[in-house]
Amino acid sequence: MPSHRRPKQPHPRYAGVATATAAAAVALSAQQATADPLPDPTKKGVQAQVDRLYEEATQATEKYNGAKERADALRRQVGLLQDGVARKQAELNELRDGIGLLAADQYRAGGLDPALRLFLSSDPDAYLDRATALDRAGERQTAALRRFLDEQRTLRQQRGEASERLRDLGAVQRELGERKGEIQGKLREAQRLLNTLSAKERARIAEAEQRANRASARVELGNQPSASGRAAAAFAAAKSRVGLPYVWGASGPSSFDCSRLTSWAFRQADVALPRTSQAQASAGTRVDRLADLRPGDLIVMRTDLSHIGFYAGNGQILHAPKPGAQVRYESIARSGMPFMWGVRIG
Q1: Which of 307, 322, 328, 344 does the annotation list as catalytic?
Q2: 319 part of the active site
């Protein structure tokens, strides 16, 4: 038979606690549903890793630029040596033809001179080593043969030098491939890390970069005198590139890395600079104090001298900073790179 007893009611004190607890839970749930998510501590770590990879990529880019400069110089040397070999071979062929005509004339006249017979043998060098043969040879024959053998030795030497330079070029080209792979690997890893972030976080990072690019247009540079006429012309050329993208290994005029921007700009002022930041760091008069710099001076950054730009005045650097950025003005103090020294050209 079913019971008709009323269920036992909770004690008022416990009922109040339960009600308050439930209310707090509801309120907390509502708060968590409407508030922004708590910051993810890994996001800052990802950004730091990406920044480090970009820095390493720019450092590898300067090594790539150095290898590219050596490769270009070796190609020029090889080209000159090969041209010399071709000319020398043509001269040698002409000498050989002349000696052949001389031999033919002697044969038709009734016999071949022993000296020419020796020359036409498999070991013509032995001719000049044998005084008895020299005695038998006429003055014209001796001069022709001596010149031929001298030219032949020169040709062998030139061919050896060309082969050596070609081997050097092959080694540098292999280094170029390694540097290129290193740079591309770091950029791929940076992109992989960025892809681990949410779309919102990636957009936030991209917007921060764009703000830095836009702020460049509002920089106040002051009225400091430029370092020299050529430096002023180079600085003006660099200013005309503001807003163009950083691309590793690019030498302009529509994209640049750091040292290619400075070398391109000075080339517009008829000044030839080396391609790497390390070489440019000693390309002129060193200026140790930031306070002594003038707009148009080069400014060398990082302890390994792997970054360079133009001093723009008012504590600003004009440079191509890193992958994903544009040529822009930036506060030296906020660039994240230590100032080493300046370089005055001209």
Answers
A1: 307
A2: yes
